[in-house]
């Protein structure tokens, strides 16, 4: 019983520390979240999950969508004129999210 209490106390103390590691929620998250979800888990078929992706990959992909290097009109329109700082906030947010298991549809 004592071990169980110690473990519970340890988890209680660790939870705020884990939450403190998340970057602040980006102001520009709304439009991204419509397809990719606020926590990076896709909300619509065909949209990739972004939770837990590498920061450098997300940052580069967002830059390429913004600059037109990746020619995906939907993404270019969605990202719009985003600053480097806003782009970095979005990449940091999604890379810090923990991927969640997907629910599988029953046939």
UniProtKB/TrEMBL annotation:
Domain (Cytochrome c) ranges: 19-98
Gene Ontology molecular functions: electron transfer activity; heme binding; metal ion binding
Signal peptide annotation: 1-19
Organism: Dyella monticola
Protein name as annotated: Cytochrome C
One Pfam family matching this protein: Cytochrom_C
Alphabetized UniProt keyword annotations: Electron transport, Heme, Iron, Metal-binding, Signal, Transport
Highest taxon of source: Bacteria
InterPro entries given in the database record: Cyt_c-like_dom, Cyt_c-like_dom_sf, Cytochrome_c_Oxidase_Subunit
Keyword Heme set for record: yes
